[in-house]
Structure formats: C-alpha cells, structure tokens
Specification:
With 344 residues, the chain is an alpha/beta fold. It is built from 11 helices and 12 strands. Helices cover 34% and strands 18% of the residues. Bound molecules: S-adenosyl-L-homocysteine. S-adenosyl-L-homocysteine (SAH) binds next to strand 8 and strand 10.
Amino acid sequence: MIPHPDIRDLSLEELAFYLKTVDAEPFRARQIFEWIYQKGAWSFEAMTNVPKELRERLKKGFILKANAITQKITSADGTVKFLFCLHDGEKIESVLIPTQSRTTACISTQAGCKFGCKFCASGIGGWKRDLSCAEIVTQVLHLKEEARQTKRPLSHIVFMGTGEPLDNFINLMKAVRIINSDQGINIGARHITISTVGVVPKIKELAQEGLQVELAVSLHGYDNPSRNVLMPVNRKYPFDELIAACRGYVRQTGRQITFEYILIKDVTCTDHAAANLKKAFKGIICKMNLIPYNPVSEFDHQTPSREEMLKFKNSLEASGIHATIRTPRGKDVNAACGQLRLKN
Ligand code: SAH
C-alpha cells in the first residue's frame, strides 16, 4: 500500500488542483495553507472554517502531524536545539537562535551527510537520505511555534543544519517557496540563506530560479590543495571552478555571496592562508564569514586564539575583503553542526 502523502509536500497550486479533483472549491487551498503555515494547526480538525466533510476527506487522504521530539535543550544563551525523530526512525536536528536583532531557525535538509568535510560532525555517520519538502517545512513550523511562545518571532532561516541543501535541490526549492510565500510561512527571501559545500552545477541552477535568497558558500580552504584535504567535494568541483561559478552567480543574480571560512589553528588560520585568499578574491565583492572551529572530538583540530583570529581578519580587511568573525552560539547544548544527532 502506498502511504498517505504529507499535505506539506504540496505547493499551493498542487493543493488547489487536488481540491478540484474532489469537487471542493479551489479557494479552500488558501484557507488550508493559512491554517498550517500561519495559524500553526497540527491537525485537520483544527481547521474550523473548512467544511467538516472536507476536513474528513483531507484526514483520510493526507498526513498532518507534529514531529516526535526526541530531545529539546535550551542553552544558557537562549539557543534551543531540537532533535526530531522522523517516521522511519531517522533523527534530525534543528536549532532556534535568538539574538538582539533577529530570531533564526537553522534547518536540516538531509538525514546525515555524504560530503565528509574533515571538521564537521554531520558527515561522520554517513548519509542516510534526503528530507522531503514536508520534513523541511515541518522543522520550520516547530521552531516558529517555539519562537512565538518565547515572544521572539521567527525572522530568519538558514539552511545550515545537517546535510547539503543543494544536493536535495527539488525538495529544497519547493520548501523555500512555501517558507517564502505570503500564503505560506511568509519569510522574506532575503531572510533565507542557503549554505552550500560548493556543488557547482547546482549553484548555476540556483541562479536560474529567480529567488532573491541569500547564498552562502562554504569555502574553508584557501587554495586547491588545502580544500582537497579539508573538503573532499573539492576533487569534483575544484577551487577555481567554484570561484568562477560564484562570479557567474553574482553576475546573473546581482546578489552578493557570503563565503564561510573556518578558522582552524595552524591549518586555515595562518599568514600563508590569508595571502592565498587575498590573491583568489582579488576584485570579487563579497563578505567573508570567519567561523571559529567548533571542536568535534573525532577530529584533532584546535580553535585558534582570539588574537590569531583577529590578526587573520584584519589581514583580510586590509586588502579590501569584508570579513566578520562569527560568535559561536549554543556551545553548551552541542548546537554546532550535527553534534547532537551524532551523540544519539
Ligand atoms: N552543507 C552545507 C550546510 C551545512 S554546514 C554547507 O556545507 O555549507 C553549515 C556551516 O557550518 C558550514 O559552513 C560548515 O562548514 C560549518 N561547520 C561544520 N562543522 C563545523 C565545525 N566543527 N566548526 C565550525 N563550523 C563548522
């Protein structure tokens, strides 16, 4: 038997089409969307302005339920980390990060990760599967509810949880459109960031999608050899090809890219690395987000000292690269990069 589809796998247009096939008015699609994505309904029964008969039919045809929460931990700095258990037992992490100016949801796109970056906990247990559109948006719904309860309304989404967003492109695009749509979760495209390990053909495809979302590229290496070692994906999509694809993306979309660069003591946070980055980024207008390495026990890297990180940042800034050092959040709850999932 084919299991019931999750209603959150349907776009507004698909839902309207389905309603036509069961002789319901197409405008009900908007009502149902509003219940799910704006009023936070976790069941069809809750949709009181939808005729009872239609609610019954939806209940028979579709799934709409909350995730099972395996763990929920609140950090001293207000970061809330969820570990959800999916229908097949796979576990995924989502993190809510409130700051002074914004409340950000960090969302996973795959169960596990196949890219095996040599500093990231997500790749250690290997890759299990892609998340469906419904599984992606349901994480956002949970975090939105949590944010509302703590009176810090959800304002931003980053696809920086477990997995590679661009390796699950179709489901990601569908989820982004539901998150962005004013009939859906209604978060502005510029408040949505997709972070990628650097899947070159998908960066090109993303440029064609006509979305105004933010793109972040995990660079982490300063040249081809260093990136080959730290990020095996570089052997398929080498450093120069990636930079060229990024230039193309900026040209085509008129949008800036943020580069993420991990600061590992004596590995990526060195004078030699800074000099190479300056060479590679000559003439590229971009932001460089420097991320202090967050220790993962399976790797022997170390986080540089504050002075070393500042020296690196200042050296980039001196040659016109706009760089900021990211403040780590939720350290006490293993909020970084797949660590909670790994421990479970
Ligand atoms: N696959 C996507 C998104 C997930 S990772 C990507 O690679 O961009 C989100 C960010 O956290 C990436 O920049 C990743 O490289 C970084 N990251 C992973 N492990 C880390 C660690 N131990 N310390 C600091 N940053 C880490």
